[in-house]
């Protein structure tokens, strides 16, 4: 952890004082996060996200804007009715200041915030004079009155109020006196925190520290931060703002948000707790970080980006042989933190860049032991295949089979089945009815030919049905396997329809997911190779587990 005494502001200014002990994490996934293109949560989804963030231990969960749309109104009604019992977080309703030309008491949106029955309300108001002039088209004095009246009214109703100073950093750059005046008006009206918002996401770290420091010194209340990531600096700006005295930081799960997203709250949690030494949440909650990240990604029908710090699939993946060799001696040589602290795990990736240490460690990860000669044989085969377009970085199950075969752990005579041949016919057109594909598959099991036919919504689905009919219950584990995802990549962009294709298939048994790969100029053949590996992987690992 870097001590505050040696941490310096950008540009060599005075040392940064360091964050205060009581930093509050404020989650705005359910409001700002849902403004990401393609993200739409049901009320049930919103309740699940709120519970997940509460389990993680954030201080505030912003639930949305009651009165602005039916879903958010229903969410708060159900929360108030007892369906959302938060153990750690305080639920917050979000809305805007009163409309121009009306009193706060008669403003319907403010009444909607009161009807949500939350202890805390966050109001957003304009702090950039340009927006007041051109967007609101009211006088700057009226905008100040809108801010003051709204906060005073909500405080009189017994609510805690926070104020989001929208476009604060842009306003500061163009007209700092007015931006400052709006923030001071909110604080003097009774806001317990004024949140400085980088709504357009363009603030730069070399400006942020000085601006936030000045506002911390000027305001008689807490200062919060809300950064967007359009300049790629949302997390860095948040960390710098906390270093100079802000005590609240807003962000979203996985950095969701409009355009390029918001500050990633999970990255901030990892940085502040593991790097800055702030005890934000108990260690056992931080260990849920990866789980919560992936669960919320699933709810928004997205995937946690693989390279996301701390929680990404590749955050602790090691591909280079030099890394693996060092990791075999000491795991912390090429990892900045222990992945278990955030619920993630070290992964060894085998590719043409790997060394024998990668293979040995990957084998151990799979519960297998291989000697040096076998590791070399595996590595040589991987490099030969990758030169032909195969890739095992994202296909652990296929690599596990290749390792067993090359190392002599899965002999030819021990293979569960041998593919003899298959045929697929595909129908289509405006007059087509019913399943569009039919397939037959012939395999040999224990020296006996098995033949199966199947129909499906495409060639891969038809092949899957045909294989299951051919083996007909020989291995019960096959009945539990389902195809979860299917990806095709063209490897030779200039070869047109004659290009080699790589197919990656994700399968699951209800508890675990695993990936297999197939490569061939014929996309159906590539698909069958990946499918066949999925079946063999399931059978072999089930047999090994029984044997163990």
Number of domains: 2
CATH superfamily of the largest domain: Aldolase class I
**Count of runs of 4 or more consecutive helical residues:** 18
Globally, the shape reads elongated
Spans of 5+ residues with little confidence (pLDDT < 50)?
1-7
Number of strands: 16
Strand order of the largest sheet: 1-2-3-4-5-6-7-8
User: Please, what is the oligomeric state?
Assistant: single chain
Q: Provide the CATH top-level class of the largest domain.
A: Alpha Beta
- Termini separation comes to 44 Å
Q: Which percent bin holds the helix content? A: 40-55%
Question: What's the Cα radius of gyration?
Answer: 29 Å
How large a portion of the residues is in β-strands, by DSSP E? 15-25%
Concise account of the structure shown:
This protein has helices spanning 43-56, 70-83, 108-115, 129-136, 140-156, 168-189, 205-218, 234-243, 265-275, 283-286, 289-299, 321-329, 356-365, 372-387, 396-406, 459-471, 476-480, 523-547, and strands spanning 24-27, 60-64, 90-96, 120-126, 160-166, 193-198, 222-227, 248-251, 317-318, 347-348, 418-426, 437-445, 448-456, 482-490, 501-508, 513-520. The chain is α/β, with parallel strands linked by helices and 548 residues long.
Question: Can you walk through the features of this model?
Answer:
The structure is a single chain. α12 crosses α13 (356-365). The chain has helices at residues 43-56, 70-83, 108-115, 129-136, 140-156, 168-189, 205-218, 234-243, 265-275, 283-286, 289-299, 321-329, 356-365, 372-387, 396-406, 459-471, 476-480, 523-547; strands at 24-27, 60-64, 90-96, 120-126, 160-166, 193-198, 222-227, 248-251, 317-318, 347-348, 418-426, 437-445, 448-456, 482-490, 501-508, 513-520. The protein has an eight-stranded parallel β-barrel, surrounded by nine helices. A three-stranded antiparallel sheet has the order 11-12-13. It has a three-stranded antiparallel sheet with strand order 14-15-16. The protein folds into two domains: 18-281, TIM Barrel; 413-547, Alpha-isopropylmalate synthase LeuA, regulatory domain (Double Stranded RNA Binding Domain, 2-Layer Sandwich), CATH 3.30.160. β15 (501-508) and β16 (513-520) form a beta hairpin. The protein contains 18 helices and 16 strands. The radius of gyration is 29 Å and the shape is elongated. 41% of the residues lie in helices and 19% in strands. Mean pLDDT is 87; it is low at 1-7. It has 548 residues and is an alpha/beta fold.
């Amino acid at each position: 952890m870097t001590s505050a005494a040696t941490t310096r502001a950008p540009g060599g200014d005075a040392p940064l004082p360091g964050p205060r002990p009581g930093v509050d994490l404020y989650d705005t996934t359910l409001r700002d996060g849902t403004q990401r293109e393609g993200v739409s949560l049901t009320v049930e989804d919103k309740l699940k996200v709120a519970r997940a963030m509460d389990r993680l231990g954030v201080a505030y969960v912003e639930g949305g804007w009651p009165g602005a749309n039916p879903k958010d109104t229903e969410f708060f009604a159900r929360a108030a009715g007892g369906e959302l019992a938060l153990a750690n977080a305080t639920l917050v309703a979000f809305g805007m200041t009163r409309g121009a030309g009306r009193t706060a008491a008669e403003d319907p949106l403010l009444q909607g915030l009161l009807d949500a029955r939350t202890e805390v309300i966050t109001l957003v108001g304009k702090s950039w004079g340009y927006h007041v002039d051109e967007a609101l088209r009211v006088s700057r004095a009226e905008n100040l009155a809108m801010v003051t009246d709204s906060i005073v009214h909500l405080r009189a109703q017994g609510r805690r109020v926070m104020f989001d100073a929208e476009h604060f950093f842009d306003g500061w750059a163009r007209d700092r006196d007015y931006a400052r005046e709006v923030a001071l008006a909110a604080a003097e009206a009774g806001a317990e925190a004024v949140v400085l918002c980088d709504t357009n996401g363009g603030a730069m770290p070399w400006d942020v520290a000085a601006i936030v420091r000045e506002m911390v010194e000027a305001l008689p209340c807490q200062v919060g931060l809300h950064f967007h990531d359009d300049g790629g600096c949302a997390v860095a700006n948040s960390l710098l703002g906390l270093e100079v005295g802000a005590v609240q930081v807003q962000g979203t799960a996985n950095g969701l948000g409009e355009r390029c997203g918001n500050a990633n709250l999970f990255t901030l949690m990892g940085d502040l707790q593991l790097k800055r030494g702030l005890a934000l949440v108990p260690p056992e909650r931080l260990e849920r970080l990866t789980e919560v990240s992936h669960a919320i990604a699933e709810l928004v029908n997205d995937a946690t980006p693989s390279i996301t710090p701390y929680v990404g699939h590749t955050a602790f993946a090691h591909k280079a042989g030099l890394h693996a060799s060092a990791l075999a001696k000491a795991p912390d040589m090429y990892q900045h933190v222990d992945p278990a602290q955030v619920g993630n795990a070290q992964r060894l990736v085998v590719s043409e860049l790997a060394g024998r240490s990668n293979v040995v460690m990957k084998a151990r990860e799979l519960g297998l032991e291989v000697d040096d000669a076998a590791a070399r044989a595996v590595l040589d085969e991987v490099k030969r295949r990758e030169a032909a377009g195969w890739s095992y970085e994202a296909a652990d199950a296929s690599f596990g089979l290749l390792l067993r075969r090359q190392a002599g752990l899965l002999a030819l005579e021990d293979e569960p089945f041998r593919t003899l041949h298959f045929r697929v016919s595909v129908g289509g057109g405006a007059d087509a009815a019913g399943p569009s594909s039919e397939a037959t598959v012939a395999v040999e099991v224990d020296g006996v030919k098995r033949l199966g036919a199947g129909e499906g919504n495409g060639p891969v689905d038809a092949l899957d049905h045909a294989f299951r009919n051919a083996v007909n219950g020989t291995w019960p584990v096959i009945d539990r396997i389902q195809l979860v995802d299917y990806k095709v990549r063209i490897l030779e962009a200039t070869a047109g329809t004659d290009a080699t294709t790589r197919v990656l298939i994700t399968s699951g048994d209800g508890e675990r997911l695993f990936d297999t790969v197939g490569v061939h100029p014929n996309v159906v053949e590539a698909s069958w190779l990946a499918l066949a590996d999925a079946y063999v992987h399931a059978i072999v690992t089930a047999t090994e587990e029984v044997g163990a």
